[in-house]
Task: structure prediction
Amino acid sequence: MKNKFFMLICATLLCGAVSAQKITLDKVPAPVASAFKSKYPAVTHANWMMENGGKNYAAEFMVNTSRQTASFNPAGGWLKTDTSIKTTEIPAPVKETITKQFTGYTIGSASKMENADHGTGFDVELAKGKDIVDVTLSAKGVVMSQEPRQADPVKTN
Result:
């Protein structure tokens, strides 16, 4: 049951991220801006957006060389943070699952997901020829969700 709930949360947040709408800092509620500043005091610049159909707020920012996105509810409650990571930073249990369950796929991109309710997980984009699948795994390597999708079209001039 907990795994199904985690998958539902991941899917909901993913759908919200896809439909994110950029906003300016003056449109961010004070509790959200305050919670962000408290959680990330060293960050001096963030790009803000509304996500999940305008229900939540997300800040995209850089920490050292990592792109991060932190999501908050309107009252300032932290929901999750996604951090882009190098494929070499994926933990061994996650890599083992990918090797065993996704034979022949290569890792295109990865992010570490810290969730207020469910702890740490990893989102990876796997590719095998033209087949692409987005997979969410727990830190222990358990597949929480997988979503096949089409490759982005190649732009030509």
